[in-house]
């Protein structure tokens, strides 16, 4: 149990906001272990055992009774679920309650490690396209890994500063800014955020949030949505940013339907002409962490940027694969009819045809870390399927599958030998409970484990 010594100025402010009695409830909630919840990947896992309690505002969200070792669960590595605290899953309710079309172009501007991006990717499915962006390089790599494991293939992972999006005004159907913030809502999960807390840091965060919103708010097209969230309670980083947005840009308020028993607090924010709405999550009222979110709609008559089709795809590193060569790829692996392919040196990437226009246009402006699904490479006339393909939702027809028990699945993920019994020669897709973990190649006299070295689970 964490021993909480809240910063004095923070405690005082919370007492002033909540009142003495409610502050006690808040303080006591901070002493409790945080609830553990996961969000399922609808393309990989449709349900948990019936005993798992559902998160009321997220279709695929579930609470677990206790915290298992996720590292030792092969389903975690197969991208069957994402461990996410429940308040953040409210984004799912926003999308569904507003019936946001799922065939558009979404942007998650501050995306790492990928909690909200994987949620958006699930919502968009095979129809819409997501840009998941992260400005910090090391975090962009973690984001890429999580998007690969999620495996839907509808995402472009980019590594850009928000200002690099300046030529992409008015093209996104939805922009989510889950802003870097002072993290007051994370105190019990991440005590470091408590130690770093200061009034000066709040002021710095608020300035940074304004700068980010200055770049982000113009990217939404007429009729589209802007979603702004933080994991902090103070008004400078929440209500004040809402006011900043409404003063600088033309946006309409969006009110999200709530059920009283959810315990989410609706906040009314008065701007000069209209009332806007924010939603605040307190740990003594909801089974999740502290969170704030607000939604805006761009008026239908606002600017809509055009995404122009280019005659020929030109990129310094990527080449589009010719139709003859595409046929050859299709003879090697089973691929959906409506797809396009790109080559990066000797590696081939898959993209659904309906995402081609978005991707080719965006690739002119953004620094690409990953996109679609990496399929594999040809080496000395031999097809080397990739791990990215193995864990993706693409069909595995033509490749033998090997179902592993728990212990052999863990051995495989540790890159350790285990007894596999009779297996055919060549490439084999290793699975656990019907979900792909990665690839093994049986050479007859020995086997090679192709699970990525940097992702392997260390001995516990
Ligand atoms: N959306 C993520 C999720 O649900 O997993 C969490 C995002 S976290 C709250 C905020 C992110 O903003 C961090 O990944 C951080 O690296 C990034 N960030 C930091 N400075 C930024 C800036 N100036 N502009 C945009 N993003 C920034």
Strand content: 25-35%
Mean pLDDT: 95
Q: What gyration radius follows from the Cα positions, in whole Å?
A: 23 Å
Q: First CA to last CA: what distance? A: 23 Å
Shape: globular
Q: What's the count of strands?
A: 23
- The structural class is alpha+beta
Would you kindly provide a written description of the structure presented here, covering whatever features stand out?
Helix 1 (8-18) packs across helix 2 (20-31). This protein has a domain at 397-460: Nuclear Transport Factor 2, Chain: A (Roll). The longest helix is centred in the middle third of the chain and has 18 residues, at 199-216. With 460 residues, the chain is α+β, with helices and mostly antiparallel strands. It has helices at residues 8-18, 20-31, 74-77, 90-97, 115-124, 137-150, 191-195, 199-216, 239-248, 323-332, 356-362, 387-391, 406-414; strands spanning 36-40, 53-54, 61-64, 81-83, 105-108, 129-133, 155-158, 172-178, 220-230, 252-253, 265-270, 275-281, 291-297, 318-320, 339-344, 347-352, 368-371, 373-379, 382-385, 401-403, 426-432, 435-442, 447-449. The chain is built from 13 helices and 23 strands. Strands 5, 6, 7, 8, 9, 10, 11, 12, 13 and 17 form a 10-stranded mixed β-sheet that branches. Strands 14-15-16-18-19 form a 5-stranded antiparallel β-sheet. The protein has a 4-stranded antiparallel β-sheet with strand order 2-3-1-4, with helices on one face. The chain is globular and about 70 Å long. The structure holds S-adenosylmethionine. S-adenosylmethionine binds next to helix 5 and helix 8. The site of S-adenosylmethionine (SAM) has 17 residues, from helix 5 and helix 8.
């Amino acid at each position: 149990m964490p021993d909480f010594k809240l910063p004095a100025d923070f405690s005082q402010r919370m007492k002033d906001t909540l009142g003495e009695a409610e502050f006690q409830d808040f303080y006591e909630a901070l002493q409790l272990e945080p609830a553990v919840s996961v969000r399922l990947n609808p393309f990989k896992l449709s349900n948990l055992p019936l005993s798992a309690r559902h998160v009321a505002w997220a279709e695929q969200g579930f609470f677990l009774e206790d915290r298992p070792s996720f590292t030792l669960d092969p389903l975690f590595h197969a991208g069957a679920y994402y461990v996410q605290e429940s308040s953040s899953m409210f984004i799912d309710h926003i999308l569904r309650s507003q019936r946001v079309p799922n065939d558009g172009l979404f942007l998650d501007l501050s995306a790492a490690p990928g909690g909200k991006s994987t949620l958006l990717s699930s919502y968009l499915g095979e129809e819409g396209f997501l840009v998941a962006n992260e400005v910090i390089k090391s975090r962009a790599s973690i984001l890429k890994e999580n998007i690969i494991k999620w495996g839907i293939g509808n995402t472009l992972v980019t590594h850009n500063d928000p200002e690099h999006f300046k030529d992409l005004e008015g093209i996104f159907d939805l922009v989510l800014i889950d802003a870097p913030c002072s993290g007051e809502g994370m105190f019990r999960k991440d005590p470091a955020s408590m130690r770093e807390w200061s009034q000066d840091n709040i002021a710095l965060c608020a300035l940074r949030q304004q700068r980010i919103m200055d770049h982000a708010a113009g990217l939404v097209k007429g009729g589209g949505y802007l979603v702004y969230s933080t994991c902090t309670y103070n008004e400078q980083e929440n209500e004040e940013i809402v006011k900043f947005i409404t003063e600088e840009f033309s946006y309409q308020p969006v009110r999200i339907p709530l059920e009283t028993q959810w315990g989410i607090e609706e906040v009314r924010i008065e701007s000069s002409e209209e009332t806007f709405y924010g939603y605040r999550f307190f740990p003594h009222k909801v089974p999740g962490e502290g969170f704030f979110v607000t939604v805006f709609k761009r008026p239908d008559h606002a600017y809509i940027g055009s995404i122009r089709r280019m005659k020929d795809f030109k990129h310094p590193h990527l080449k589009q694969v010719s139709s003859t060569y595409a046929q050859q790829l299709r003879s090697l692996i089973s691929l959906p009819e409506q797809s396009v392919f790109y080559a990066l040196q000797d590696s081939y990437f898959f993209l659904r045809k309906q995402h081609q226009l978005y991707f080719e246009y965006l690739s002119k402006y953004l620094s690409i870390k990953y996109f679609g699904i990496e399929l594999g490479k040809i080496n000395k006339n031999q097809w080397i399927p990739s791990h990215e393909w193995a864990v993706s939702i693409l069909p595995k027809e033509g490749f033998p599958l090997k179902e592993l028990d728990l212990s052999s699945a863990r051995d495989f993920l540790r890159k350790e030998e285990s007894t596999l019994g009779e297996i055919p020669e060549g490439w084999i897709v290793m699975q656990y409970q019907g979900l792909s973990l990665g690839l093994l190649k049986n050479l007859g006299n020995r086997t090679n484990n192709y699970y990525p070295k940097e992702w392997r689970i260390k001995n516990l």
